[in-house]
Amino acid sequence: MEELDLTVRIGRMTLKNPVIVSSGTFGFGEEFEHFFDLSRLGAIIPKGISLKPMAGNRPPRIFETEGGIINSIGLQNPGFQEFMKNKLPYYKNLKTHLIINFFGNTQKEYVELARRFDDVPGISGLEVNISCPNVKRGGIVFGTDPKMAYRLVQAVRKSTALTLVVKLSPNVTDIALMAKSVEEGGADAVSLVNTFRALAVNIHTKKPELGNVIGGLSGPAIKPIALRMVWEVRQAVDVPVIGMGGIMNAEDAIEFILVGASAVQIGTANLINPRTGMEVIQGIRNYLAQQKIDRIQKLIGTFG
Length: 304
Ligand SMILES: Cc1cc2nc3c(=O)[nH]c(=O)nc-3n(C[C@H](O)[C@H](O)[C@H](O)COP(=O)(O)O)c2cc1C
What we know:
Layout: E1 8-10, E2 13-15, E3 19-21, E4 43-44, E5 62-65, E6 68-71, H1 79-87, E7 97-102, H2 107-118, E8 125-129, E9 133-134, E10 140-141, H3 146-158, E11 163-167, H4 175-185, E12 189-192, E13 196-199, E14 201-202, E15 207-208, E16 214-218, H5 223-236, E17 241-243, H6 250-258, E18 263-266, H7 269-272, H8 276-291
Parallel strand pairs: 3-4, 3-18, 4-7, 7-8, 8-11, 11-12, 12-17, 17-18
Antiparallel strand pairs: 1-2, 5-6, 6-16, 9-10, 13-16, 14-15
Helix pairs in contact: 2-3, 3-4, 4-5, 6-8
């Protein structure tokens, strides 16, 4: 068989393969460099960045549950300035795309960050995390109100020419409506899902297992719900969909690609097996060869 073509297009980016490591589960990349050559990934998405440094939530911040973990890191990050000075230079020598995940407390903060990242060499795209409460509007989450999400994305769109991926929250009744709203706002792609709001109880202390009480569930437990959401979103929008939620191996990734994901993100699996990304790329290659398909693009959305 001829050389397999694993390339996929997301906005203005051409990824050498559809495997991306997800925000918050791969540190800033450096932490994983001893496990494999990071340049082999389709893209890297570092921990979410805000305008100012954030200390995060009180511990405990991670609790292991059946088939997953609940985390309440609280978006701890070094902030824009520190990221630019001490983290960004690391990516210069990597031959993969760097997609910056970011968030703000107000629309103004989102717009300001998008503008600041816009003309930075080495950054290929932005992933907007809209699962944040709008502090000005009494804590309403941007990602659960279609009108607010539309307005936010429209404003961010105007302040950057970079490929704009909007990361959707699964904590909504109608995920397709949210996807359509951000597409209309100007998103080049949508990524989903972020974590599901969850709670863990300790019956001995009669207290929550997490310092923040509520956290976000990720890992294999959420995969069937995430798959359903990706499938629904695929049918609702024209822009590329990036799927994630409980992908532990190549088979899981292929399920997402079949239901319409142009690319996938590996999250919690990185914490268990840091080489998961590499193994997923190899497993996708093997599957394509077995199926006698020469281009991954022929596989996307062929489910049903
Ligand atoms: C410890 C941890 C930290 C995370 N931090 C972020 C973050 O900063 N920004 C973001 O958009 N998503 C964050 N996420 C969500 C993941 O990127 C991903 O959307 C989610 O975990 C679902 O995928 P998975 O089941 O493969 O982990 C985090 C997840 C975990 C487990």
